[in-house]
């Protein structure tokens, strides 16, 4: 009986991990496509990102249901419980990453005269780093790799540096070209959403590290 219960629990955990991997894959695609739609001014591609977000939300709901069922039926203890709680929290964060991609995609039609903005070359580079963080942190989760999780946390400094540079660039652009204020403000919003994606990938990395080791990463915040 105990052996059957362990096997059933392992199958549930594998299913949870699979759902989160699927969510993460969709979120990654959404980040890339949201930025591509913004750079090209492609409203149709932006709409695809918005539609995909519903699938990410549905997967999060599935993770929630399964995690609650596992806790109720299997009564996991210690490491096993940590694993289920981590899955529950990570799914919630990945869902929010999808929301940020959707928010970017919704801004596509509000940016005019794209060729005027130098930050439009910086924003895709920033998004590339953030998307890589999402990819790497999901790899770390799948492999239960606390060291890779720590690497992801370090990478967030690059995203923050990009944001600071873009912020300064856009503010200066708005001062010199008042007619571009509306579009520049939209780009600031986009950069802020990418910065939040990096923050959320960092949050997942901290949870991955905790799930794998029982300890949060060494950081003055903990």
TrEMBL record:
Name the record gives this protein: Phosphate-specific transport system accessory protein PhoU
All copies of domain PhoU, residue ranges: 20-108, 125-208
GO cellular component assignments: cytoplasm
Function summary: Plays a role in the regulation of phosphate uptake.
Keywords: Cytoplasm, Phosphate transport, Transport
Species in which this protein is naturally found: Qipengyuania atrilutea
UniProt xrefs under NCBIfam families: phoU_full
Family: Belongs to the PhoU family.
InterPro entries (UniProt xref): PhoU (IPR028366), PhoU-like_sf (IPR038078), PhoU_dom (IPR026022)
Assembly and binders: Homodimer.
Pfam families associated with the record: PhoU
Subcellular location: Cytoplasm
Highest taxon of source: Bacteria
């Amino acid at each position: 009986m105990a052996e059957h219960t362990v096997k059933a629990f392992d199958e549930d955990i594998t299913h949870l991990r699979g759902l989160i991997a699927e969510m993460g894959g969709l979120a990654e695609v959404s980040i890339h496509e949201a930025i591509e739609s913004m750079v090209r001014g492609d409203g149709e591609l932006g709409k695809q990102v918005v539609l995909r977000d519903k699938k990410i939300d549905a997967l999060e709901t599935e993770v929630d249901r399964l995690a609650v069922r596992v806790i109720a039926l299997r009564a996991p203890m210690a490491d096993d419980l940590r694993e289920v709680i981590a899955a529950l929290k990570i799914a919630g964060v990945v869902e929010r990453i999808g929301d940020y991609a959707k928010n970017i995609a919704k801004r596509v039609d509000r940016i005019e005269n794209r060729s005027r903005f130098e930050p439009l070359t910086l924003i895709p580079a920033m998004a590339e780093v953030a998307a890589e963080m999402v990819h790497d942190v999901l790899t770390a989760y799948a492999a239960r790799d606390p060291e890779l999780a720590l690497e992801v946390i370090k990478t967030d400094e690059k995203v923050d540096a990009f944001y600071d540079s873009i912020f300064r660039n856009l503010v200066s652009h708005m001062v010199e070209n008042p007619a571009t204020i509306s579009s520049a403000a939209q780009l600031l919003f986009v950069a802020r959403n990418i910065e939040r994606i990096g923050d959320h990938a960092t949050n997942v990395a901290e949870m991955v590290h905790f799930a794998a080791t029982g300890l949060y990463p060494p950081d003055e915040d903990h």
